[in-house]
Amino acid sequence: MRYSAWNIFKQGLTGNKGWTRAWRDATPKADYDIVIVGGGGHGLATAYYLAKEFGLTNVAVVEKGWLGSGNIGRNTTIIRSNYLLEGNQPFYELSLKLWEGLEQDFNYNAMVSQRGILNLIHSDPQRDAFVRRGNAMQLSGADAEILDRDRLKKMCPFLDFENARFPVQGAIWQPRGGTVRHDAVAWGYARGADARGVDIIQNCEVTGFVMDGGACKGVETTRGTIRAEKVAVCVAGSSGRVMDMAGMRLPIESHVLQAFVSEGLKPVIPGVITFGAGHFYVSQSDKGGLVFGGDIDGYNSYAQRGNLPVVEDVCEGGMAIMPMIGRARLLRMWGGLMDMSMDGSPFIDKTHISGLYFNGGWCYGGFKATPASGFCYAHLLATDRPHETAAQYRLDRFRRGVPIDEKGQGAQPNLH
Ligand SMILES: Cc1cc2nc3c(=O)[nH]c(=O)nc-3n(C[C@H](O)[C@H](O)[C@H](O)COP(=O)(O)OP(=O)(O)OC[C@H]3O[C@@H](n4cnc5c(N)ncnc54)[C@H](O)[C@@H]3O)c2cc1C
Asked: For residue 129, what are the contacts with CB-CB under 8 A and spacing of at least 6?
């Protein structure tokens, strides 16, 4: 069923009885060409682009819970392409371009809103670094502007410009950044993939890999064995646990990241604001709630909930840069499971096991990457060659000594 203004009108007149299910409740078949493990944003986007771009539809997405139960339904919805390094910038710019046409492409309202993103500047060296980053962005076709203090003050008069420790001197501004309704992205990709023949199988946990002569030939699941020519793992925060079943150790740690939503307020935040020096970021949802977050919880965990000291720390970060936030009541918060890689950059690669592919290490930045991650993973699975924008996301980059360390801070997950 195609969604359109005409269809809304027609269904409205006929009691809304004609809407069909967005995707089928598929029963697993005995074998597929490709099985994707993990029905998060990246797994569903991969299935969608495999079907749409490469005509591969004998594909299943196997999800242990329900679609949207992982980070795709837990993140703070920010999209941007304000990266510096050659290994990252073209990839994230591809993603932003895909976001720009996404709703028309998969015929689903994902509320893509390019309201802009600001990264605050507090010192001269930070301004130099952001100017350099802005130049790198422009070289790959992205948009970036340096705002001085006066221009920023007009946009965000509520910031504490005279903060004793972090006086605000300006910002780097990417107007094409913004927010997207996160769970609608999962639903849109699922619907688009299903319509092209992909089986989406929920409540089906992968419990092992079918190995044959050293090659991966399928997965063991709670709903039986499913054989496949290729198995594409895409489980974000569960990467370590799932790849351990294939005997692989990854340069990834799992940590909790929390998100917070305040009561609804009148429009006050013009776009997304990030205060990197204190690690706090905020946007405002269309319902008026301030959506914000900060640091990871700082210890390894597979729990999807966080602890109170980090709640205090994040709120202190908010208070430091915009004291008016202290008057807003906190409505709800939750945690998600982050696959923090040691250089802060992801992996989209074949493993050393024939037939087994891996996508992960997205840290706190994988939502914005969803379209490009799906596109490039589909490219790798279909052609066995990496897409040019994801060519540096190799699993052996630490062994080769070429990490993609965007901030140059070394192997510390909490600093990326
Ligand atoms: C609080 C928070 C805020 C964030 N904010 C942002 C942001 O503003 N911008 C941004 O770009 N990124 C953000 N992120 C990061 C982003 O959400 C993730 O990097 C991204 O969603 C990960 O990819 P995914 O959607 O495929 O993951 P998920 O949705 O987690 O998908 C993985 C799926 O694998 C399934 N799975 C796990 N094990 C198995 C198994 N054995 N068998 C079958 N299925 C399995 C899980 O159930 C899950 O559904 C945030 C994350 C969190 C938690």
From this structure: none
Sign of the dihedral defined by the CA atoms of residues 343, 244, 68, 347, in that order: positive
pLDDT in tens, 250-309: 999 999 999 999 999 999 999 999 999 888 999 999 999 999 999 999 889 998 889 999
The string of pLDDT tens digits covering residues 136-174 is 999 989 999 999 999 999 999 999 999 999 999 999 999
How far is residue 252's CA from residue 173's CA, in Å, rounded to a whole number?
A: 31
3-state secondary structure of 132: helix
Nearest Cα neighbor of 163 from 316, 355, 371, 52 is: 316
Could you tell which of 364, 375, 416 is best to mutate to test the pocket of ligand 1, judged by most ligand atoms within 8 Å of the CB?
A: 364
Contact between 201 and 63 (Cβ < 8 Å): yes
- Given the structure tokens 């919805």, which residue do they identify? 77
CA–CA gap between residue 339 and residue 38 (Å, rounded)? 14
The rounded distance, in Å, linking the Cα atoms of 159 and 280 is 13
CA distances from 51 to 36, 191, 362 (A): 13, 12, 24
Tokens of 348: 């989209």
The label of the residue with tokens 């279909």 reads: 382
pTM recorded for the entire structure: 0.97
Query: In sequence order, what E strands does 342-400 have?
Result: 347-350, 356-360
- Indicate if ligand 1 lies below 6 Å from the C-beta of 87: no
Q: Tell me, using a 6 A CB cutoff, whether residue 36 lines ligand 1.
A: no
Q: Is the CB of 379 under 6 A from ligand 1?
A: no
Question: For residue 113, what is the DSSP state?
Answer: B
